[in-house]
Structure prediction request, 225 residues.
Amino acid sequence: MNVPVFKLSHVAGVSVSDEDLIADLRRVAGELGKNSVANKQYEKLGRYSSITQSKRFGNWNEALRRAGLEISNRFNIPDEELFENLLTLWQHFGRQPRRREVDSSPSTISQGPYNRRFGSWMNALKAFVDYANGASAELAEHQVEVPVGGQHKTPREPSLRLRWLVLQRDNFKCCACGASPAITLGIELHVDHTYPWEKGGETVLWNLQTLCSKCNLGKSNLLPA
Ligand SMILES: [Zn+2]
Prediction:
């Protein structure tokens, strides 16, 4: 099937069946390789407008449900997953995310679950910061010297709390070039091992740094100068 470059719903007099709308949602999910579609993603890849979908079925989540897809506004999401999504947003924007920003990419969870769990967006942010800062016990455990024998004492992937501490310490800026997504949206920040993990570097606060994706690629596993 050829995908037209215009949105069919914008063409006057053209009516679209429910089946067509549902089929197109499924097609986009298939293209994304996911079992859910954010309405922003659908705007890019869909044949119709996401507003057409929402209006036809009452709202976006209902359109997803009718298409047999998962909705992001689901119940009983563990706190850890809610916080992980908040850190993703904080890292993406290089600053505290705004309420409406949780409803679009790169967020995978909508406002609903945050409001249900914490009562409000501000309370959700407070709960996240409290959780992320409650790191003393975990960090004490991981504050170990680099062992001589090359055996790791820490896991390769830093925990949410450790990533938060590193990003905060570095003011959400690349330690090498100073790039910040708060100034240039689209700058992608990574938490990187200063002394490479492959060479025995541990996943501890002092051995982690914030790098943008460009500087991180340039660095690979080279030892620090
Ligand atoms: Zn950089």
Summary: The pocket of zinc ion is lined by residues 174, 176-177, 179, 211-212, 214-215 (CB under 6 Å). The first helix runs from residue 18 to 32. Strands lie at 189-193, 208-212. The radius of gyration is 21 Å.
